[in-house]
Specification:
It is a single chain. This protein has 308 residues and is an alpha/beta fold. The chain has one domain: Arginase, Chain A. It is built from eight helices and ten strands. The protein has an eight-stranded parallel beta sheet with strand order 2-1-5-10-9-6-7-8, sandwiched between helices. Strands 3-4 form a two-stranded antiparallel sheet. Helix 3 packs across helix 4 and helix 7 packs parallel to helix 8. The protein is globular and about 50 Å long. The termini are close together. The mean pLDDT is 98. Bound molecules: zinc ion. The site of zinc ion has 7 residues, from loops.
Length: 308
């Protein structure tokens, strides 16, 4: 495979309080992991600024203006109990979006087979009208809409293996049969949504995993729920909300996935991408808060994207 790696250069400028799990050190760990010789074949690109007005494709019209107004002149301001904004946060969100759109462009123009975008902050908890869970703007959702609007892709699948349910992504697409959303996540856990009986208009598939379960339960859930539904949907493009907080080392959740589980799920999704959409996968980093678990998960995921 030809795999594009898109990296942010201004990721440190989104400030979070000391001890906050969503910190700049996450992307330092990811960059270090992906600098190993086994990744020499990656096509590398710095994330350009993306147009934040595109947030209107998925968020309320007053969503972005409210975020702009919330920026403090200095320091950090809390938006919710766990979500913060600093003076330059929206610049970082803009390169996160620009990175995702660069990945989208490379994949949809056929310049590369797939792409991984190492970006922060995560986005999948950002709902139509509300920020939450460390997320300011729902980057994966905007990328899905841009794939349709700019590139003419019709059927977009978003698969989310972050340990938390992507309440924002489900909220945005729950009434839209052109976008498929499937999530595997620990339940009970923040944000509390993602019950298996939440089906949207037949386009939502939730696999709830019990705390302390590991790869066997995850693989069964994908084999029984997510993979057949994804195959049946026959997407033109697969966007991954790639979180690595289901890793056994992660401090925010109690699933017990190891590197081989991230390899397995990536490979299974690639099998469907090969059969249904010419290998087209754009993978966006979401969560992952233990630096060792994050770098191990990302290494395995990207190595699989690259080598099959
Ligand atoms: Zn998460």
């Amino acid at each position: 495979m030809t795999t594009l790696l898109v990296s942010q250069t201004n990721y440190e400028e989104h400030l979070t309080p000391k001890g906050h799990p969503e910190c700049a050190a996450r992307l330092v760990a990811v960059a270090e992991a992906l600098s190993a010789p086994e990744f020499d074949a990656l096509v590398r690109q710095d994330a350009p600024y993306g147009d934040l007005f595109l947030a209107e494709l998925v968020h309320d019209a007053n969503y972005l203006p409210a975020l702009r107004d919330a920026r403090p002149a200095e320091g950090i301001r809390s938006l919710t109990s766990d979500t913060v904004i600093s003076g330059n946060s929206l610049d970082v969100v803009a390169t996160g979006l620009g990175g995702a759109l660069a990945g989208l462009r490379g994949v949809l123009l056929g310049e590369v087979d797939n792409a991984f975008c190492a970006i922060r902050p995560p986005g999948h908890h950002a709902e139509i009208a509300d920020t939450s869970g460390f997320c300011l703007v729902n980057t994966a959702a905007i990328a899905a809409r841009e794939a349709q609007r700019k590139y003419g892709a019709e059927r977009i699948a978003i698969v989310d293996f972050d340990v938390h349910h992507g309440n924002g992504t489900q909220d945005i697409f729950k009434d839209d049969p052109s976008v498929f959303y499937a999530s595997s996540h620990q339940m009970p856990l923040f944000p509390g949504t993602g019950r298996p009986d939440e089906h949207g208009v037949g386009n939502i598939f939730n696999a709830a995993l019990k705390p302390k379960t590991a790869g066997a339960e995850m693989r069964a859930a994908y084999n029984e729920i997510i993979l057949p539904a994804l195959d049946n949907f026959a997407p033109d493009l697969i966007i991954l909300s790639a979180g690595f907080d289901a890793h056994i080392l992660d401090p925010l959740a109690q699933l017990e996935w190891v590197e081989d589980d991230f390899r397995w799920v990536t490979g299974k999704l690639m099998d469907i991408a090969e059969r249904r959409c010419g290998n087209r996968i754009v993978s966006l980093l979401e969560g992952g808060y233990d630096l060792k678990g994050l770098s191990g998960g990302v290494s395995t995921h990207v190595a699989t994207l690259l080598n099959g």
